[in-house]
Structures
1.
Amino acid sequence: MRKLLFFLAATLMAAGHSYAQKFPVNATKLLELPVVYLPPNVTVHFISPEPIQYVDISTKQITGDLPVKNILRIRRMTLDSLKAHAFGDTGTDAVVTIVGEKFIAQYHVVSADLVAGSIQTDIEIGPAEIRPLDVPGVSLSQPELHQFALRLLAQKPEKHLQHSSAYGIKANLNHVYTLGDYIFLDIGYENKTNLRYDIDELRFKIDDKKVTKASNVQSVEIKPEFTLFDTPFFKKHYRNVFVFKKFTFPGNKLLHIEVSEKQLSGRIIMLQVAYSDILEADTIPVH
C-alpha cells in the first residue's frame, strides 16, 4: 500500500513539474493582456514608438498591414458562417502580437458592436504595454539613434575635419562620432550663391585614392542606417547627421561623400574622408 501511495505521489509531482514547464509562472495570461475592441467596418491603428519588425494575428478573420513602418492597421473581415468555416476560423477573439526593434507587445482583440464614443481607433503602444526584447543585430533603436543625432546637432562644430568647395558650395565634415557599433557623421554645406540647391541624391562610396586609366576601379557604396533629416533643398546652410553600422576600409581608399543637384544645373560636390578621420572619432557620452 505504501509503495502504491509513493508511486501516486511521484506521478503527481512529475505531472505537476511537467505542467509547470509547459506553463511558466511568469507567462503572460490572456486575461492580463490589454483589451482592444474591434467593431465591424472599423479600422484600428496601433502606433509604435519604433519601426515594427514583426506582427502576428492569431485569427484569419482579422487582417492587418503596415501602411508606414511604425503603424499597424487591423480590420475585421465580414464573412458569413460558411466562408468562416472555409477559413477554418469562426471567431474574432484574437491575440495581436507586435514586435519592434527592442520590444514586444500583445493585445487581446475582441469583437464588439459599434457604440458612439466607446471605441478607440488609434492605440499608442506605451511603456505599460511593452516588454524589453533583445533582437540580434539591433543595438540601438531608431528613437535612440534620433535622440543621439539631435544631441550631436546641438553642438557647435569647433573645426572641420575635411572640407571641399565647388560651384560656390562648401562641404564640411564637422565631426565623426562613434557609439557601440555605429558611426555618426556630422556633415554641413554652405551655399554662397543666390541659387538654392535642390538635392537630388547624397551618396557614400568607398573608392581608391588614386585611379589610373588602366586600372579597374572598385567602388563600394554604403547606405546610412539612419538619417536625421530628409531635406529636399537648402538656400544657404544645410547640416545633417548620418548614422552607419561600423565599417572599415584600407588606407589606400577613401570615403567619398557626394551630393548631386537635380537637373538642369546638376552641380556635384565631393568630400573625401580618410580612414584616419574615422579611427580618431570621438565617443558619444551615453549620459
Note: The domain at 27-135 is CATH 2.60.40 (Immunoglobulin-like).
2.
Amino acid sequence: MSEHYVINLGRQLGSGGKEIGEKLAQQLGIAFYDKELINLASEESGLCREFFEKADEKASQSILGGLFGSRFPFITEGAYPYNSYLSNDSLFKIQSDVIRHLAEKQSCLFVGRCADYILRDHPRCANVFVSASPEARIERLMKLHNISSEEAEELMEKADKKRSSYYNYYSYKTWGAAATYHLCIDSSVLGIDGTVEFIKNFVKLKLHLD
C-alpha cells in the first residue's frame, strides 16, 4: 500500500467537482471512481445495483423516512420493498469494503461517498473539497440540465442537504468544513482547468510525488 496513494474529493453540486476529479486522475495517471463504485459494490456483494442507487449518498434516517431513530436501525418487513432486509448502513459497509480494497491495490481518486473517512488510516492520502460561488454553480447547472435559475437553485440546495447529512452521519465530521480536509478550493476563482492544476501541484507536494 505504501507505494499507492489516494485522492478523496468532496464537492458541491455545480462546482465542477466530478469534471475536476476526472481531469486530475487522468493527468496523474490514476484510477477514477464515482458512480462506478455502485457497480463494483453490487458485483462484490451480489446484490442488485438498485439497492446502492437508492441508497447512494443518503444517510440511513433519510432513506428510511425517519421511521427509525437509532444510528444503526433495525429493518422490519414492510418498511420499503428494497430495504426490508438491508439497512443503508449495511450497504455503506459493503461500499466501504470496495473502496478500501481498491485503495490497497492501486492509486486512485474517489469522488464523494465518505472515501476520506473510510480511508482515514491510509498512509498516503490527500483530502480535497471543491466548492464554488452560488452564482457559478447555478450557471453551470442551468447549462448542464437546461433548467431555469430557480430550478438550479432548488437542485443545488437539495444536493447540499443530502450530501452533508450523509457525510456528517457516517463520518462524524462536517461536510465542507475546512478542518475536515487538507485543501478546500473555490473552482469559480481559477476555473476548471486552473483548479485541476492547483490541486495537482498541492497533491504532488503533500504526497512527495515526482
Note: The radius of gyration is 17 Å.
